[in-house]
Amino acid sequence: MSQNVGKTALAYARVWHLVDAKQRTLGRMATGIATTLMGKHKPIYDPAADCGDHVVVINAKEVAVTGKKWDQKLYRHHTGHPGGLKEIPMSRIMERDPSKVIHKAVSGMLPKNRLREPRMERLHIFEGADHPYADNIIKRYDEGPQQS
Predict the structure, then answer these.
(1) Global pTM?
(2) Phi, psi of 38 (to 5 degrees)
(3) Contact 31, 105 (CB under 8 A)
(4) I want to staple 145 with a disulfide (CB 3.0 to 4.6 A). Which of 32, 34, 92, 99 is the partner?
(5) What is the CA radius of gyration of the chain?
(6) Domains in the chain, ordered, with CATH?
(7) Other C-beta atoms within 10 Å of 71: how many?
(8) pLDDT (tens digit, 9 = 90+) per residue, 103-135?
(9) 22 by DSSP, 3-state: which?
């Protein structure tokens, strides 16, 4: 009997994972989320196939960072005009939109290829504990999205 799962709908079914970001370290949480979005936790993982799952992150405003990152970490972007380098500290971004910090951390940990945007579309981030995907959640991770 063959051990090959093949390209069945059941093998590629997308599962919904819930991650509570409350007092979780940003970087360690983001690596686990990126692994789940890529599908590396599945036995059918293929780098060229998009077989990852959905991830719902709640309590984004209560994420923790180590050291002095809260004041010293800068997010940079360029407007395209001469002298248009903009630097925004992490504390100001967390005041405006805490989901952007998690979004940028996870996006930076995904491979830089054409599957990055479809994978990021399966990441749903909410500032508080309320979210509209409560009926879809199958797996809840208190320690992190990837348990090895």
Answers:
(1) 0.86
(2) -80, -25
(3) no
(4) 32
(5) 17
(6) 16-141 (3.90.1180.10)
(7) 11
(8) 999 999 999 999 999 999 999 999 999 999 999
(9) coil
